[in-house]
Design goal:
Strand content: 25-35%
CATH class: Alpha Beta
Helix content: 25-40%
Largest sheet: 10 strands, mixed
Number of domains: 1
Structural class: alpha+beta
Number of helices: 10
CATH topology: Ribosomal Protein S5, domain 2
Order of helices and strands: EEEHEHHHEEEHHHHEEHEH
Distance between the termini: 11 Å
Length: 276
């Protein structure tokens, strides 16, 4: 059996710099991993199976199964696997859970089936599953540009984060098609971005559409510099110590799902893979 993490990511900043004729958006964002997320285990089997099923997601539509079948098709592999998912990340939370699961499936099955597909090739395959999948395969904190497909390795600080889920699911497509989404942030270099205050161009719109996000973010800002990640709904605060982040989590409004994690410029997936 192979057991591998599928870590969450945070968008430390997110700027929308334009919109293309095909509807896709140009952006600039800084991805960093955290040492918390889902987990997948893989065992050799005659057929390809996944358990448990996710509520509201047909097995054929699950990105893990799609990733497995894509890898089979790409390599001609006919072997099967029994895949088990331990799901910890909320769906539609902006933490990249589905994309991370898909990336870990590609990486894990590549190892289980001894296919030896290079990481760059796996990342290109992953792009067929979602724009964020390649950064999870690549496994390094990265400054992403274009439509999120041009990566430059980055090394931001690795603080402690408190990540909170407001309990709503935000549809990414709805945010990117909303006419009120800002689309005119200037294109700057990574050095320029790092030297300026960070923000998320989607945050104001999501707060307007989802008051729960606005309310929880307002609360967290009382304790630490805080922003929304991706297109939401999850938010995160930055802390100097684990203790400070955990103490703030204890004060969170009743019923709020949250976790404390360390920022990682090398993905826990790569670290676990190196240890196999």
């Amino acid at each position: 059996m192979i057991r591998l993490p599928a870590p969450a990511k945070l968008n430390l900043f997110l700027y929308i710099t334009g919109r293309r004729d095909n509807g896709y958006h140009d952006l600039q964002t800084l991805f960093q991993f955290v040492d918390f997320g889902d987990e997948l285990s893989f065992e050799e089997a005659d057929e390809l199976t996944l358990s448990p099923a996710l509520p509201g997601v047909a097995t054929d539509n699950n990105l893990i199964i799609k990733a497995a079948r894509l890898l089979q098709s790409h390599t001609g592999c006919t072997r099967g696997a029994r895949i088990r998912l331990t799901k910890r990340l909320p769906m539609g939370g902006g933490l990249g859970g589905g994309s991370s699961d898909a990336a870990t499936a590609l990486v894990g099955l590549n190892r289980l089936w001894q296919l030896n597909v290079p990481a760059d090739e796996l990342a290109t395959l992953g792009l067929q599953l979602g724009a964020d999948v390649p950064v999870f395969v690549h496994g390094r904190a990265a400054f992403a540009e274009g439509v999120g497909d041009i990566f430059t390795d980055a090394a931001p600080p690795e603080p402690w984060y408190l990540v909170l889920n407001p309990g709503v699911e935000v549809a990414t497509a709805a945010i990117f098609t909303d006419p009120d989404l800002p689309r005119n942030s200037p294109v700057l270099s990574l050095e320029q971005r790092l030297s300026l205050p960070w923000q998320n161009d989607c945050e104001a719109l999501v707060k307007k559409r989802h008051p729960e996000v606005a309310k929880l973010l307002s609360w967290l800002l009382e304790y630490a510099p805080s922003r929304m990640t991706g297109t939401g709904a999850c938010i995160f605060g930055t802390f100097d110590s684990r203790e400070a982040a955990e103490n703030t989590l204890k004060k969170a409004p009743d019923g709020t799902f949250g976790f404390v994690a360390r920022g990682c410029n090398q993905s826990p997936l790569l670290t676990a893979l190196d240890a196999l």
